[in-house]
Structure formats: structure tokens, C-alpha cells
Amino acid sequence: MSYKSGTDWAGRVDSKSDKSAFRWHQVIMPVDVSDIEAQKQDADSVNFCFLGFCCDEGVTRNLGRPGAKNGPASIRKEMANWPANFNPKVTLYDAGDVWCDGNQLEEAQEELATVVSKLTQNGYFPILLGGGHEIALGHFKGLLNIDLDKTPAIINFDAHLDLRPVNDKGSSGTMFNQIYQICQLQNRHYSYLCIGPQTYANTPSLFAKADEFGAEYILAKDVVRENLQNVSELIEAFVKKQDSIYLTVCTDVLSAAHAPGVSAVQPFGLDPEIVLELIKQIIRSGKVCSLDIAEVSPRFDSDNRTAKLMAVYIYSIINTLVEMQLNK
Predict the structure, then answer these.
(1) Sequence-separated (6 or more) residues with CB below 8 Å from residue 205
(2) Which residue range(s) make up the domain with 22?
């Protein structure tokens, strides 16, 4: 594994002096995590920091379609031209990428955990870009390192429960089983809600495992417009029980018509507009402490549709988070 600070942001330039015409690539600032304490950000600002996890190894081990390691670059490219029309108290940063070299997944996840901890402890709100969904284990470990007495709840938008047996090594299908084992070993409360699992994509054994762990789930077939009020109430009931929430979005939760560039394409996936509404609901609780987007796979992404969709999600997520942060 390796950590590389600095990424290339480039795009359209309408003006080099008129700030009202600036785009994201003109305002985003780099963060070198290896010397993070020496870099001062504005304490009065809401400081968002992107971090990539360039990794295919978990997907490969899970017998999926590799390609997600290039997801961070693809999403950044689509975000670069967004107008910088957010609140003046918002500052955008980029901490570069954690790379998984060869099959060194476990080492890359540990490095990711270290970087997440450093960002959070130094006043940044992390927004992670995957990479395979194995990003979740490193991300969660990083959050655990911040406060040994607090354990964030997990809300996962996903076609899969990702509770598969670990055996010798983890993969992109084992993370929430691994997190459960960590919580058991450290005497922590495990709280996990999966929104959108498909019955055709998860064995009865996996649903039984979710029940055994006390996990909750809302099936994809129930996340439809006519049932949205009920789904919203179920999410609200879960959120109310939590002190903080780690939010993770696996893009394979979405319909292939909107998100073809994923590791495991879903012909009967969810409507992206409904998913975004539910994400905003969760964010407006004020309890989301960190989030990631996983499994954008550019090699399968016709016209970059999935990357564009996730860029729109992130644009909307940041504006919703700003609304919450500044109204505290």
C-alpha cells in the first residue's frame, strides 16, 4: 500500500479573478496528511476533505468485476467543474489517495484508518471516494481510533448485506461481518442498517446472519415511491437511537439504468432520486460524522454516468451538511 498526497484538479475557467465565477477545481486546496498539524485551516469554516481509496483487491477477492480503483479520479473529474457557489464559510480540501499495491488489502485498510483519524482529529469532515466497498473497514477503523468510548452506527445503502464469512481474508463482501467481530472483541455496541439489499443478491444465510447480529435492513423491493413514508419512518426510528452515524453508499444499490459503472450491476436497483432524498434525511439528523462513496468502476461506466451521478450526490450532500453545520 502507499499514501500519495496531491491530486490533479482541472476544468473550465470562466475567470481568474471573479470569485463568483469560480469552480471547484479553482478553490480546492491540498492537504498533506504526513504534515497535517502544520497546515492551518480556518476554524470558523466548515472544512470538507476528500480522500481517495484506490483499490480493487477486495472486489477481486469477492469475484467481482475489478476497475473501482480508478473511481476516485473519475469522480473528481466530474466534480471539478461544479460552481463554487456554496456558503463562504465552506472550504474544500483534498488529501490525495491511499493506494492498495497488489494484494496488500489489509495494509491499505490500516493506512486508510490512520489517514481518516488524522483528518478528523484535525478538524476536517472526511468524504471518502472508492474504490471497492472494502473501503468501509478501513474507514470505520479510523473513526474508532478517534474516540475509544464511542462507536458510530452504520447506515449502508447497498444491494448486498456484506456480511459474508471472512475465512482467511476479507473482501468487498465481508466488511460488516468484520466490523461486528471488532465490536465483539472490544465490547462495543454494533448498530447496522442496510438500505436496499436485494433478495436475489443475498443468500438466506446472510439474512439470518443479519438477524443474529441484530442488524436491520430495508429490502430494495420496499424502497419505492409509494412506500417512501414508511421507509422514512423506519430510518428515523433507527437514527433516533444513535449518537453518531457513519454513512456509506455502495453505488450498486442503484438501478443499472442510472449507474452502469459499478462492480456488481443491478437491473432492479433503486431510484437515485429516492436514495438522495433518504441520504438528505439522514444528514439532516445532524448525526453523520463521516461518509464514503464506493464501487464506481469507470471501465464499465458508459458516458461516465455513474461518476456524474455520484458527483451530483456529493454536491448535494455537501450543501445539506453545510446547512446542518451552520445551523448548529
Answers:
(1) none
(2) 2-326
- Total residue length of the chain: 328
CA distances from 140 to 13, 133, 136 (A): 37, 12, 6
What CATH number did the domain enclosing 135 receive? Answer: 3.40.800.10
Q: Give the ranges where 122-197 is alpha helix by DSSP (H).
A: 135-144, 175-185
CA dihedral 143, 146, 151, 152 (to 10 degrees): -40
Q: Count structural domains, the chain.
A: 1
For 176, counting Cβ atoms within 10 Å of its Cβ (0-12 exposed, 13-18 middle, 19+ buried), the class is buried
Q: What percent of the chain stands above pLDDT 90? A: 87
Residues 6+ apart with CB under 8 A from 2: 98, 99, 101, 111
Distance CA 66, CA 58 (A): 9
Q: What is the pTM of this model?
A: 0.96
Task: Average the pLDDT over 97-114 and give the result.
Answer: 95
Sign of the C-alpha dihedral computed for residues 16, 19, 21 and 26 taken in this order: positive
Using pLDDT thresholds of 50, 70 and 90, give the confidence band for residue 113.
very high
Q: Is 276 helix (H, G, I), strand (E, B) or coil?
A: helix
Average pLDDT of every residue of the chain: 94
pLDDT surpasses 60 at 19: yes
